[in-house]
Each structure stands twice: as structure tokens, then as C-alpha cells.
Write a structure and sequence with these properties.
Helix content: under 10%
Oligomer: single chain
Structural class: mainly beta
Strand order of the largest sheet: 3-4-5
Distance between the termini: 42 Å
Number of helices: 1
């Protein structure tokens, strides 16, 4: 049995071409890492991408922000 949570980010919402107001779930294949594994107790990490440094931060409200 394969059940999916509506908040599962491996599913995204896509607008249907025939009806702009209608949406459908489209499965996405993504490698998933927990934020605990990434941050390891810290509130900010650096991500190097094509020679540029990006900073991924956990806010006071517990949300993630990515800055260049």
C-alpha cells in the first residue's frame, strides 16, 4: 500500500493546460535529506555551486532561507 501525504514535497502541483483553474499532483523523484543531517545542530551552512557560495539559514521561525 502506497499512501502519500498532501504535504509531501515529492509531489508538486501542476496547472492543467485544458483548465487553468484545475490542478493535479505530479510525482517527483528527488533525493531527500533531513535538515538535521544537513545542519548538524548549526543554524547556517554554506553551499558552493559553480564557484559561488550560497548560505542556507534556519530562521527564528524555523523556515529556510537561501542567500547568495
Amino acid at each position: 500500500m502506497n499512501s502519500h501525504n498532501a504535504n509531501d514535497f515529492r509531489y508538486r502541483v501542476r496547472r492543467s493546460d485544458d483548465m487553468p483553474a484545475r490542478f493535479e499532483r505530479v510525482p517527483m523523484s528527488v533525493r531527500t535529506l533531513s535538515s538535521n543531517a544537513l545542519f548538524q545542530g548549526e543554524h547556517e551552512i554554506g553551499i558552493e555551486h559553480h564557484g559561488a557560495l550560497y548560505r542556507l539559514k534556519i530562521t527564528r521561525q524555523g523556515k529556510l532561507i537561501l542567500n547568495k
